[in-house]
Amino acid sequence: MRIGIDIGGTFTDFVVHNPETGSITTFKAPSTPSDPAKAMLEGLERVDGTAHRQLIHGSTVATNALLERKGTKTALITTKGFRDVLQIGRQNRPSLYDFFEDPSEPLIPKELRLEVNERVNADGEIQQALDIKELDEVAQLLDAEDVNSIAVSLLFSFLYPGHEQAIADFLREKGFFVSASNEILPQFREYERTSTTAVNAYVSPVMDKYIGKLQKELPHDDLSIMQSNGGSISPLEARKNAVRCIVSGPAGGVVGAQSVGLQAGFDRLITFDMGGTSTDVGLVDKQFQLTNEAEVGGLPIHIPIIDIHTVGSGGGSIARVDAGGALQVGPESAGADPGPACYGKGRLPTVTDANLVLGRLLPGNFLGGEMKLDKQRAIDAINSTAQALGLDPYQTALGVIEIANAHMARALRVISVERGYDPENFTLVSFGGAGGLHASALARNLGIPQVLVPPQAATLSALGMLMADVIKDYTKTVMLPGNTSIREIEALLQPLVETGQNNLSDQGIENANDMIIERYLDMRYEGQSFELRIPFGDDFIKDFHNAHKDSYGYANHEAEIEIVNLYVRAIGKVKQPELPRSTEKSPDSNSAILQEQDIIFADGTKRVPIYDAQLLKAGNQLTGPALVVRPDTTILLEDQDQASIDPFGNLIIKVPQ
Amino acid sequence: MNSSNEINPIRLEVFKHLFTAIPEEMGAVLRKSSYSPNIKERLDFSCALFDAEASMISQAAHIPVHLGAMPLSVQYSLKEIDLAPGDMVTLNDPYRGGTHLPDITLVAPIFVKDELFGFAANRAHHADVGGMTAGSMPIAQELFQEGLIIPPIKLIEAGEINQGNWNLILANVRTPVERAGDLRAQIAANQRGVQRMQELANQYGIEDLSNYATALLDYTERMTRNLLAEIPNGEYSFADALDDDGISDEPIPIKVSIKIEDHAATVDFNGSAPQQKGSVNAVYAITLSAVYYVFRCLLSADVPNNSGSLRPIQVIAPESSVVNASHPAPVAGGNVETSQRITDVLLGALSQAMPDRIPAASQGTMNNTLIGGIDPRNKRSFTYYETICGGMGARPGKDGASGIHTHMTNTLNTPVEALEFAYPLQVMRYEIREGTGGAGQFKGGNGVYRDIKVLIEAQATQLSERRKTKPYGLEGGEPGSQGVNILIRDSKETELPSKGTFDLKAGDILSVRTPGGGGYGKK
Fold first, then answer.
1. Contact B451 A93 (CB under 8 A)
2. pLDDT band at A127 (very low <50, low <70, confident <90, very high)
3. Which of B25, B29, B431 is opposite residue A83, by nearest beta carbon?
4. Domain at A249-313+402-468+575-657, CATH class
């Protein structure tokens, strides 16, 4: 039994795969934010406890500790003269034209940023040796301040880790929880490395306690923890390296979209997850894309993380008229509480209210009928905005949708066009509660030819966790000239490769066939400040020139090349459950029609069929305009959309271009 | 057609997104494909779109000092060059659409079906454009000494690089490979902007496109007029000074008087010093940028950056003055130093009208630091250029931030480890200069120490300010402390002037200590 479990803000999602029967079942339980483990443990009682259970778990425990600044009291030890690096950062201000916006406060206050006398130079040579006796005083101070988590980040520790390691050993012996930067991110650029290490020190003790509790409560189950890089790791590692789990939920969503897409025969995907307050978008080009430049809560986290772009636009985004007479939508959100006006608490008009006013949501069918929507309240809210604009309420509601779409289209362009991908070659995978009403319009807007809405749209992140491989990343800054011999590079890569292999076998990946070791070099032309990641092979120099030309439009064969970092990715393949497949092939979808209803579009009101998704069968053909209603989401087919249900139950919408 | 008069408030917002997304995408192209750390890592560039009359439709939030200056680049290109589809103009002449020589601007006309619709333009700071010293920010007395002067010329003609102009530029700079890489990136960014605008024209029609471009200028104008109406009518004056021009020792006064009349403002710099021998002279575009910036900060975040915000504001800058220099006065420091003081006097004047919205003076300098020499590891010449953060002025209700860039710049620092890998230099200290922020009910932010040891013989140029005068406090707050430049040789400290070029011996340490921000309110 393999079970993916995703704890979100409102619900905890479970996806259960039974390898014997091949069945996949999903269910949800209300989350318990004050004690997140509670919902998980209660939910698991619904799954056969006598079977061998493998749990792959993603939670927001580390994320929330960071964003809400509820991590553990943490100190920093760094090279003399550089304790303020964590505060100065890259010296820029977050908002160009706002006198009042400040950069994020450092996680570690000045009085807990401590310095030691030591110095290593850019060649990795010791210029000033560390005197470990200095640490006695430091340890006393940490005791007096009641600090137990410590980040250690010294200049050039990735070239010579000896000083950092001596400090870490000394403090670990005394019982402190230590995060050493050469263990977390042995890469140059001291601010980003120190920040990543500090985040780890800040959130790991919280994660440690949480996972410890889970392991105690679930002694007979195998537990793995979802990471932000799209793979899972052992609980032991997650407890020490919680920084790797910061955005595991959205990462699960992209992995889920990838496996649904691949099984359905689509390998180039743009993922679109629209929720109540924000929308996450990502891109899969056979493989999900990683970034080393993530920022969470204004703090850089430079370990590999699935590249996800987030905008503050969702179903709860509030519409208002500004002083210049333009209609604005978001980023302010009514959230889940009070929620959109039609939820019956708030009065402010939102995107969800606009959809309801236009007939695109069924008041009695929201969340499977668990929540009744108040349409009159939505009309009143939209009306107040309409009056301020001098438009009628329907034009206004259409405008709210159009503007929300403009926000989201920009996000989709950032992740595709700006990264050099043509949306024309991609399929838009829509999930999350609010996405189905906007996906087709967005696909038209961007020239994406088709949309895929999986049946697991509301639990896709948990499904992704179920599908995730075990993935470990290893990196090291080396700063070598491009003419370094292949043999020398191989020798330098070898320790990383061996660590990866050992780590995978520690996590139960025994069979060499299930182990994939990928080796890369981060390279650039001398003088550049950005690196390209190139697979390591005999032609890596040529490959780099070509990659540079592809990415940036030119190659410079005369320039010197630098090999900046080594990067090894160790993947332990997990046998991916096959998604259940139907053999039915009936094109006639009429029996799934619940009723007909008027829906308002920009070119007028149309009477359209409403389909019950649970009655739709593989092979069914649908023509837009139409509405497809699921317990957890509603999908709008625009005029001339041609849709069908594939054998996996995916709704595939062909959008005319 | 009657649709031309009707501006729909929904469409207006949609076009706002469309027009803003294009310069942002241009910026992404430029950043990714450029060659030098200045552009890639420090983000010293800006991208914008213009209509056929050279009014700026939208600028991505890049560098404030480029704000008011870019429209003039487009105006000069339009005036001096006969443009055809596929052409691209380049320029850096401060007296013909530029600001200072290292900032090279590329302007591309956007033609839709043979009709000129507007322009895509971008400006990037190049690490070297020739001249007396590496880095092209020398202590000069004439523009000609500061580097290669490029009047508006065609860099691309009908889609092909004009090889003569290309070669001439590259023959006059110290690092031609890097310059070529950056220029190619600038070309690619403009091409992307042109392509996207043509796509929009196809999608929405050229008439709607230009109507909504005009409507967005009107919209920003309206928002600016609303803001001006919030400011009580009256005349508000303020004066401050630059330390000196690096040639003589005399302070250089800068004065402004802002007259608010209902929905309009007149900003008059009469009373400011005449232009100087040294390079602190600002061309008119810089002064305009500072005015633009200050009013932009008082508008809400989502108002598009376009020329509409300057329509209600008249800017008067006396000719041949330090705020409106004439050919051939040197200008390298006008862009990076004088621009900050112009901002200071504007804010000082406005604080009298709206004390609850204006911060005390920030560090008021960019602490430009350049070090050049020969790297013994590869026997090649190198140039390191950096602007260094300092204290932010305290704000009504809030302390100022420490160790941060303020006002006219927002470039990133070079990481210590990146710097030491790249140059024969070593950073000995990078920390907050405690106690340098002005006291007050709300404290000014602190400056920083950046101590750089040269491992070889080298030449350093310092172009800095607020070494004599102090960033002012407001409402009874104390001023911030001045900065100071120190040479540490054989453990002995010697104070260096605010501006100058110095020979350094191996082992010398250049210690740049930046100013704190002013305090706000009586303690």
1. no
2. very high
3. B431
4. alpha beta
